[in-house]
Amino acid sequence: MFDALKNLKDTIEDIAEAHGDKIADGLEKAGDFIDDRTDGKHSDTIDKAVDKAQDLVEKLGENGKKH
Fold this sequence. Notes:
This is Antitoxin. It is a single chain. This protein is mainly alpha-helical. It has one domain (2-65). The chain has two helices and no strands. It has helices at 2-37, 43-65. Helix 1 (2-37) packs antiparallel against helix 2 (43-65). The chain is elongated, with a radius of gyration of 14 Å. The protein starts with a helix and ends with a helix. The model has no long low-confidence stretch (mean pLDDT 95).
């Protein structure tokens, strides 16, 4: 079980390394879409969530380079 989770983590890190820019762009677009649908009522919260998600993808991508 532990090996399967480690393999999954490694795969996710490799994907984030290879496609991190596309994932970050998708997160930004999703945030903009949600912000649009909520008429900007939650812009600050959405921006913070998108930034945190993008930071996580970047961190995962950096870990992927270590393999």
